[in-house]
Amino acid sequence: MTNEAFARIKIDQLLKDTDWRLTDGVSVRYEYPLDDGGRADYALFDRQGRALAVLEAKSTSVSLSAGKAQGRRYADLLDVPFIFLSNGEEIWFCDKGQDAHFRRIETVFSQDDLARRKAARDIRRSPLDIPIDSRIAGGGGRLHQSACIEAVCREIVNGRRKMLVEMATGTGKTRTAAALLKRLFEANWATRALFVVDRNTLAMQAEDAFAEHLPHLPCYRVPRTGRRFQDEKRVTIVTLQTLVNEYEKYSSGYFDLVVIDECHRSIYGQWRRALDHFDGIKVGLTATPCVMQDAPDVDDEDRAAIRDTLRFFEVSRPTYSYSMSEAIADGHLVPYEIYRAMTARTAATDGFSVARSDIDWAALDAPTRAELERLFADRDPIIVDPSALERKFTIPERNRAMVREFREVLENGYTGPNGIRRAPDWGKTIVFAVTKRHAETLARMFDDVFADKKPSPTTRYADFVVSGMGPDDSVDGAAKIKRFKKEEFPQILVSVNMLDTGFDCPEVRNLVMARFTHSSILYQQERFEKRVGFA
Using alpha carbons only, what angle is made at residue 70 by residues 116 and 33, rounded to the nearest 5 degrees? Predict the structure, then answer.
């Protein structure tokens, strides 16, 4: 058996894997005769027998580059726009009317996906000729949203397939994405899109936003793993955790457009494999200020995340950027004020002093208790790494002091470093905690300290939500968040990994940083659109 014959056996399997019918005499035709007397290795047709693409087979001993010219010639003779090259190991693809070069893809496109793409391609218009719906984005003086859509569409028309959008939290990334989707659908550059988020709360938030802004564009959220995507819908909203378990069931051509929310958290390991599987144009959304990569105060982890995000989208800087300072200057975000509580000394980067009597020994597990006993054996107090606080041990009085001081500042105001007296707003407050135990403890403490503000003893003035993608997750987290956004109580919501970024709740007035973070970027994301950060 020759190398090419062996490759064709593997190519046949690749076609079967994406549901091509090899023996119906219509869909796949071998050695298909062409007008110049040549023969295409594979010609692919739709169910009505209309030609869609050619597939040129090469042996594994020959570079696929050797088949480019031949594939283009066969596609011209057959009058089809799509060309596949494969040796059974790799698959390359080219839309000869749009692409200057072939690119590697993960699977042959399915018959339905290929037919859908060709039908859309035949009636495609430039998205730049389609008006942006100002009812969704760009209206009310939010010119940055329409400018972003214009920038992304220009890049798409010019042939770029990966774009990165950096927009500060609170400036309308989801609205901008909705208006971009509407424009690309109307121009027939996309007929099926994927919107990816990294947590279910954001998926539900996106579903609500798209239902409001795109009522005539069928959108839905994949509720859990094991549910097949709905082919008839135009926009699929899915969490990374669900996508990574489902993506291999679909051909690489299933989505024409992939929008990745909070993309700086979505480009690693198994997440990246799921995103790379689909050949659609990719647009990343992030509030992480990528221009901070070389700033001297950026943590090494943040710098690496920025670098890897830029590398994934193959850009040296974002396609479009709208910073926090620009948003504040334009009046779309309110400026913030930082109050440093007396307990902020425990977040010193060089460690802080802890006495044996400060620690809640009953809350420690055996290994941590043994470790601390060893450390206290020859000295008291000891110097502790602040990142261990609440993860390894708890200082109850620190938490109580933090809660008491927050109430005092709300009631009496405070004098800032510049000598100006300030009065924070009473209102919805988010507290960022370390662990589930820490969150629950703080919620109870806040509830006690603000008991006089509750209409009844059974009302929760403070509640907590946890998402660590594990057994400690709040099973009713979505319901708690909805109550926090829509109802008067709770006034305070303590969060662990749930409301860090992308949370849409304009009523929030205060943020309490009850956890230590190395990340200056995350710190800014969590606080900048609110009035006061309480650290």
Answer: 75
